[in-house]
Write a structure and sequence with these properties.
The protein is α/β, with parallel strands linked by helices and 270 residues long. The protein is 36% helix and 24% strand. The strands form 2 sheets. Strands 1, 2, 3, 4, 5 and 6 form a 6-stranded mixed beta sheet that branches.
Length: 270
C-alpha cells in the first residue's frame, strides 16, 4: 500500500479549533467514518482504539506534529487523513508544544509491515520543516492534500521490479541512526534488519599493546543496517540517506556499501 493511495480526500480538514486532545480524536473518528471500510465500526469504537494507542505514549512527537494511529481487526484497508489546527491544541506532546498538524492512520491489525512503512514514510515527510509549514498554512482541504502529495510523491512513487540490491549502512554517528532507519522503513518491498556492533577501538583499547592510544573511553555507538531493496530503488535510497548525512564522500561516522544480489527469496517480518 502506497501512502498516496491510502490518503482519503474526505478525511481532510483545515483550520479546526478543538478544545483538547480528546476533541481531536473525536474529529478523527468522525472524518474516518466517511469511508466504507469502516461501515461496521462505530465512532465510539474508533475513539476508544485511538485513546488506547495514546495510552501507550503520546503520538504528539514534537515540533507541532502528531500522528495518531490505531489498528483494527474488522477492517481490510488503510485510511489516512490530515487535519490542521492553526492556533494549536494541547496533545501531551513529547516537547510540550501544542499540535498544529495532525496526520492520522487507521489500518488493519493483520498488516503490521505496511503500518510501519506508512508511519515511517509520514515521519520522513514531516521531517521536512518547509513541508510542515506549507501544510499548516493551507486554507483549503484541496491545497492541504496537494501539498502533502507533492512532498510525498518522491518518497513513494516507485515501480516494481524483481532484481534486488543489498545495502549495508555502518553508523557510528548516533544522530543519523533514527532518520536513516526511517528511510528503509518507508520503502516498499524492502527487508531490513539492524545489528548491534562495536567499533574496533572498543576492542583494541582493552589490549595492553594498544591501550596507550586512548586516554578516554572510545566511541561506543555502532549499528549496522542491512537491507534488501528493489534494484531500481537503490539510487533513490542513497539519495534519501544523503539528504540526512550530506555528501557521503565527505561524511564522517557513516559508511554505505551496495551489492547486487544474485539470488533472493523469502521475506522478513519488521
Amino acid at each position: 500500500m502506497k501512502l498516496v493511495d491510502a490518503l482519503c480526500e474526505q478525511c481532510i480538514a483545515v483550520g479546526l479549533a478543538p478544545t483538547d486532545k480528546d476533541a481531536v480524536l473525536t474529529k478523527i473518528a468522525q472524518l474516518a467514518k466517511s469511508q466504507s471500510t469502516l461501515e461496521n465500526i462505530t465512532e465510539a469504537d474508533l475513539v476508544e482504539a485511538l485513546k488506547n494507542r495514546e495510552a501507550l505514549g503520546s503520538t504528539g512527537f514534537g515540533r507541532g506534529i502528531a500522528i495518531p494511529h490505531c489498528r483494527l481487526d474488522a477492517i481490510s484497508d488503510f485510511i489516512i487523513g490530515l487535519i490542521t489546527i492553526p492556533d494549536g491544541v494541547g496533545f501531551d506532546s513529547l516537547d510540550d508544544q501544542d499540535v498544529r498538524l495532525v496526520v492520522f492512520i487507521i489500518g488493519p491489525n493483520d498488516r503490521p509491515t505496511e503500518n510501519i512503512r506508512l508511519l515511517s514514510g509520514i515521519s520522513r515527510i514531516l521531517a521536512n520543516r518547509d513541508a510542515v509549514h506549507e501544510m499548516i498554512a493551507s486554507t483549503t482541504e484541496k491545497a492541504l492534500m496537494e501539498s502533502f502529495l507533492r512532498y510525498g510523491r518522491d518518497e513513494f512513487d516507485m515501480r516494481q521490479d524483481g532484481a534486488r540490491s543489498i545495502i549495508h549502512v555502518f553508523i557510528q554517528n548516533e544522530d543519523y541512526f533514527r532518520e536513516i532507519l526511517e528511510v528503509f522503513g518507508s520503502i516498499e518491498k524492502s527487508y531490513t534488519v539492524v545489528m548491534g556492533a562495536e567499533n574496533t577501538s572498543a576492542y583494541l583499547s582493552k589490549m595492553p599493546l594498544f591501550a596507550g592510544f586512548w586516554t578516554d573511553t572510545p566511541r561506543t555507538f555502532c549499528r549496522v543496517i542491512i537491507a534488501s531493496v528493489l534494484k531500481n530503488m537503490t539510487n533513490e535510497t542513497i539519495r534519501q540517506i544523503e539528504s540526512i548525512t550530506g555528501d557521503l564522500s565527505e561524511s564522517s561516522g557513516i559508511l554505505v556499501t551496495v551489492q547486487e544480489l544474485l539470488f533472493s527469496a523469502g521475506s522478513l517480518h519488521p
